[in-house]
Design a protein that fits this description.
Number of strands of chain B: 7
CATH superfamily of chain B: Glutaredoxin
Helix content of chain A: under 10%
Oligomer: heterodimer
Order of helices and strands of chain B: HHEEEHEHEHEEH
Distance between the termini of chain A: 35 Å
Structural class of chain A: mainly beta
Strand order of the largest sheet of chain B: 2-1-5-4-3-6-7
Shape of chain B: globular
Number of strands of chain A: 32
Number of domains of chain B: 1
Number of helices of chain B: 6
Largest sheet of chain A: 24 strands, antiparallel, barrel
CATH architecture of chain B: 3-Layer(aba) Sandwich
Shape of chain A: globular
CATH class of chain B: Alpha Beta
Helix content of chain B: 40-55%
Strand content of chain B: 15-25%
Chain lengths: 555, 168
């Protein structure tokens, strides 16, 4: 072994000398927590007291050659991160070659076909989500406007003892996209812009079940269209999945489907968007026995606005039910232009957003499971039942009053079905919450400003009983000195909790120092348990009390 | 395990020896193909703008990002007249919120070049940890300044750097 290493070292050293002539870029992030015991909020002190997550990406390109890697370290992982992450080692690495015609990658890669309904390998480090593909990918551009892709690999399932752990099944896929206006000379000047695409994905996992006959190869395929005509934009994708009995769907033999469309109209000062989505039996993983966020091959976006204010974003967020749902969304934004009556000197923007999600209408097979089909029910795309999963009605007004003062006023009404999209252990049925937020920004003098947020969340009583944790109040004040410093203090108060001993304050203080692309933050205080979500994927973060230090760097 | 650590160590040693060379050739924009709002493919290393370029990573769900871009929006006509700068706003919205990018940008009457990075390819290549993250690129395609975060007043510092480029 040792001899091998000595032989290898000069080669690698030599290779990296060559590397140094190209471009190196990357980033690093480290988060350290020191946690206290806090029985009032149910926060536990981990045995090691201190926790730390770190990673660093290093990407190298030199002409047509590229290589990259990420080192990750969990000693041990911070709270809320997938509990099986541990150790230090390579979490991602690849080499590749790319020119205008071909792009080939060996090793780890991220990829998305169309809207991702058939395949999306991506990462979100803040969530600890990473379903990268480990294998080979080729992208070919035979002529302008045509992109062909082929991928083959195992997905990253976990990271244990400093090593990537792969999912059980292999994933293969191919995708083609045609931008007609670039392909056909005649369409070059057309005011209609048209893109067509198609994809086919397949997974192979051995049938190791003794009682069921499981399909070992499961395909998923479909097409998409994207149209732009003057101010009108439309895109849509439809994907069908073959029989895929799994833990998620209770081992039924139904086909699955997913479909999304967006229609929008825009002009200066106005944006209108209408979206629809239909999903049925579309959990598609490279290991049929897995659950939660593990080894998803596809991505099923939740069809609602991603909120940013603390109480709205983390108390009642919604993620897609891959087993099935029908959802619609409408979004309108309008700016009253400058120097109009409602616009004032700087213009006023109003936004309205509505989203709703229902269970699909299912006609159940009365002979299931005694007949041999294994088909449990029938459903039709976009046909929904009257069982509500989610509804969100919200609007906001943002206005700049003068050079020194601006503000945003927002209202939200959120209904979430806790029996289906489980969000709380304390709630029954549909939680109906009204939330109001006032945000104000004061510029004190050049480079110095103060921002405040006042948020109130009011949960409607259910049959005279307080639902979930009752009402909340949040206040935040933030002082920033551009470009280097910020200080903020936030307190969340659960004053309406039905259990009087749980009417607790969650104060937290955060300071930050930023210099160019380096950023340090320190925070100390209590954080309530909640769902931390990015892009409709959520992870549960337990309540904690303590110190958090974080460092990020780009290079 | 041991093997990978030693390999890595060698890489790093090699990198640090080669550092001098790397500093002479400043960091260039990586090449990633993204779509603009018109559906056209744009190679990030060949965007073909004359003069300085500001690349600002943002998302429809990121309030400080929107504050930054809306603030610069008010100053943008003057910035363009004085320095010929172009701002490229790269949205990292994924499929969940990507469809909101165009309505938002239009409702705010932005004049920026907008690119979509739904799977985070350009974000990763640029080493962006979190948004907002703003880069300034000179007319030769070198990254000359970057800033993570946005606080009111940061736009003034950015503009000072743009002006510095102009005087060179």
């Amino acid at each position: 072994m040792k001899i091998k290493l000595f032989l290898l070292a000069p080669f690698v050293l030599g290779a990296s000398f060559l590397f140094a002539q190209g471009t190196i870029s990357g980033n690093a992030e480290s988060t350290f927590q020191y946690l206290n015991e806090d029985t009032v909020i149910g926060a536990n002190q981990p045995p090691s007291k201190g926790l730390i997550n770190s990673y660093m990406n290093v990407f190298y390109t030199n002409g047509n050659f590229k290589a990259g890697m990420r080192l990750e370290s969990y000693l041990p992982r911070i709270q809320g991160y997938p509990n099986r992450f541990d150790g230090t080692g390579l979490g991602m690495r690849y080499v590749g070659y790319a020119n205008d015609f071909v792009d080939v990658t060996l090793g780890s890669f991220y990829e998305q076909f169309g809207a991702g309904l058939s395949l999306r390998a991506y990462e979100d480090r803040a969530l600890g989500y990473d379903n990268l593909l480990d294998g080979a990918r080729i992208i070919v551009k035979p002529r302008k406007g045509i992109v062909l892709k082929g991928v083959y690999g195992y997905q990253r399932l976990s990271f244990q003892e400093g090593r990537i752990v792969h999912g059980a099944g292999i994933v293969r896929g191919t995708d083609a996209e045609f931008h007609l206006n670039e392909i056909f000379k005649k369409m070059e000047t057309s005011s209609l812009d048209l893109t067509l695409g198609a994809s086919f994905v397949s997974k192979y996992q051995k049938d190791d079940n003794s009682t069921l006959v499981l399909p070992e190869n499961v395909g998923s395929y479909g097409g998409r269209i994207k149209m732009l005509y003057k101010n009108i934009y439309f895109d849509g994708e439809y994907i069908q999945k073959e029989q895929d009995p799994s833990n998620d769907n209770g081992n039924i033999y139904n086909y699955g489907h997913a479909s999304v469309f967006n229609l929008s109209y825009t002009q200066k000062g106005l944006g209108i968007l209408i979206s629809g989505k239909s999903v049925d039996n579309m959990s598609y993983r490279s290991d049929r026995t897995k659950d939660l966020q593990d080894v998803f091959i596809n991505y099923l976006p939740a069809l609602n606005k991603t909120h940013t204010y603390n109480l709205v974003a983390t108390l009642y967020p919604y993620a897609t039910q891959p087993v099935g749902e029908v959802a619609f969304q409408a979004d309108v934004m309008y700016t009253f232009l400058r120097k109009t009556k409602l616009g004032g000197k700087y213009g006023t923007t109003i936004g309205f957003n509505y989203s709703t999600t229902y269970e699909p209408k299912k006609t159940y097979n009365s002979n299931y499971p005694s007949d041999s089909t294994g088909i449990a029910y029938k459903s039709t795309p976009f046909v929904m039942s009257d069982s509500l999963y989610w509804q969100d009605i919200n609007f906001n007004i943002s206005k700049k009053f003068n050079k020194k003062f601006s503000g945003i006023l927002s209202y939200y009404n959120i209904q979430i079905n806790n029996d289906v999209a489980k969000i709380s252990n304390d709630a029954q049925g549909v939680i109906n919450a009204h939330i109001g937020v006032v945000e104000m920004l004061f510029k004190l003098k050049p480079k110095h400003s103060i921002r405040t947020e006042i948020q109130g969340l009011f949960v409607q009583e259910k049959d005279g009983v307080i639902n979930d944790k009752g009402n909340w109040f949040t206040a935040l004040i933030e002082y920033t000195i551009s470009p280097n410093y910020f200080f903020s203090f936030m307190n969340q108060y659960n004053y309406g909790n039905p259990d009087k001993t749980k009417r607790v304050n969650y104060p937290i203080m955060t300071c930050g120092y930023i210099k160019g692309s380096t950023r340090f933050t320190v925070s100390y205080g209590r954080q309530r348990a909640g769902l931390f979500c990015v892009g409709g994927v959520c992870r549960f973060v337990p309540a904690n009390n303590g110190l958090t230090l974080s460092f990020t760097q780009s290079f | 395990m041991k093997l990978s650590i030693i390999t890595l160590f060698c890489f790093l040693v090699g990198f640090s020896f080669g550092q001098e060379e790397a500093e002479k050739n400043m960091k260039k924009l990586p090449s990633v193909v993204l779509k603009n709002l018109k559906g056209k493919s744009v190679n990030t290393s060949e965007m073909g703008f004359e003069g300085p370029v500001v690349i600002s990573f943002w998302a429809t769900w990121c309030s400080p990002c929107k504050k930054e871009l809306n603030t610069i929006h008010d100053l943008y006509p003057d910035w363009q007249d004085e320095t010929g700068v172009t701002l490229v706003a790269v949205s990292i919205d994924d499929e969940k919120t990507k469809a909101r990018v165009s309505p938002y940008a239009n409702a705010k009457a932005w004049d920026y070049e907008i690119l979509l990075d739904p799977n985070g390819d350009f974000k990763r290549a640029m080493g962006v940890n979190n948004v907002p993250h703003t880069f300034l690129i000179d007319s030769e395609g070198n990254i000359v300044y970057s800033h993570n975060n946005y606080a009111p007043g940061d736009e003034d510092e950015l503009y000072e750097h743009i002006l510095e480029l102009g005087s060179k």
